[in-house]
Write a structure and sequence with these properties.
The protein has three domains: about 130 residues, Orthogonal Bundle (Endonuclease III, domain 1); about 80 residues, Orthogonal Bundle (Endonuclease Iii, domain 2), CATH 1.10.1670.10; about 55 residues, Arc Repressor Mutant, subunit A (Orthogonal Bundle). The chain is built from 15 helices and three strands. A hairpin with a 2-residue loop joins strand 2 and strand 3. Helix 1 packs across helix 11 and helix 9 packs across helix 11. The chain is globular and about 65 Å long. It starts with 7 loop residues before the first helix and ends with a strand. The structure holds iron/sulfur cluster. Iron/sulfur cluster binds next to helix 9 and helix 12.
Length: about 300
């Protein structure tokens, strides 16, 4: 059992009940009829990206590539182009590679075990656990940023978890899972949703929270965070921003683009070239010569 005095059964019960009433069950990948491929896509797309931005892109992808085989048959550059501005665009390439592996190894289906999922290109522990649970009803321990924050507050009485997931925290998440399979599967999505809608990073809505009187952090008077420094979410002027701008120009061109059109992506010419080089190394951009570039075909 976790080293917490917070009673787990009421916590599970209330969070699951709250989800039944307030969770975004209308999201297409949460509908019972959604395919495992649809769930897989949604999990990759929603990492570090708000669901509101994911939904239109997810719908477009599902219409265009409704199965792993359909995506595998497309050019990798089409996947990068269709990724739009979801961010972290290497995920588009990894999805294409995963779809290809599903065709080659699993008859064009999303594999149904955590181990097989984990063996796919670009699939980490979180995605394997989430797809196992949400597509196949296997109650793996699903731990994303939102879940980590809710557990840190409710069970540990801390404003935020440590910057990176450590073994103690992973054990706490595992130990805090409901033992009943159905309750555990609902808990996984419900606690994640509570972190996304109520127990948000800044300005948690404790007055509207179903577990306010159980939450160790709230009950302790919401003490300030005093752990290791947390990573900032800086964006403007970063290499991530410049990489995004380069990809935007390449996406919109629908053809090879001269270097002269890419050089103005940022004020710092050295930064532009560094970012362009990194996109080439990542396989997201294909150099046709030293002066012409395009998305991969
Ligand atoms: S009471 Fe506040 S801090 Fe605790 S889980 Fe609810 S929203 Fe989060």
């Amino acid at each position: 059992m976790p080293s917490t005095r917070v009673p787990l059964s009421p916590l599970h019960e209330r969070v699951n009940q709250w989800y039944a009433e307030a969770g975004r069950k209308h999201l297409p990948w949460r509908r019972p009829e959604c395919s495992a491929w649809g769930v897989f896509l949604s999990e990759v797309m929603s990492q570090q990206t708000p669901l509101g931005r994911v939904e239109p892109v997810w719908r477009e992808w599902m219409q265009r590539w409704p199965t792993p085989a359909a995506l595998a048959a497309a050019a990798p550059g089409d996947a990068v182009r269709a990724w739009g501005r979801l961010g972290y665009p290497r995920r588009a390439l990894r999805l294409h590679e995963a779809a290809t592996a599903m065709v080659e190894r699993h008859g064009g289906e999303v594999p149904g075990s955590p181990e097989e999922l984990l063996a796919l290109p670009g699939v980490g522990a979180y995605t394997a656990a989430a797809v196992s649970c949400f597509a196949f009803g296997i109650p793996e321990v699903v731990v994303d940023t939102n879940v980590r924050r809710v557990l840190a507050r409710t069970l540990e009485g801390k404003a935020f978890p440590n910057p990176t997931l450590n073994r103690t925290e992973a054990k706490l998440a595992a130990d805090s899972m409901p033992t009943d399979r159905d309750t555990a599967n609902t808990w996984n999505v419900a606690v994640m949703e509570l972190g996304a809608l109520v127990c948000v990073a800044r300005g948690p809505r404790c007055d509207a929270c179903p577990v306010a009187d159980l939450c160790a952090w709230n009950v302790a008077g919401r003490p300030a965070y005093d752990g290791p420094p947390r990573r900032g979410q800086s964006w403007h002027g970063t290499d991530r921003q410049v990489r995004g701008e380069l990809l935007r120009r390449l996406r919109e061109a629908h053809a090879a683009v001269p270097l002269s059109h890419l050089e103005s992506s940022a004020d710092d010419a050295a930064q532009v070239m560094r970012c362009l080089d990194s996109l080439v190394v990542d396989g997201l951009v294909e150099p046709l010569s030293r002066k012409r570039f395009r998305l991969p075909t």
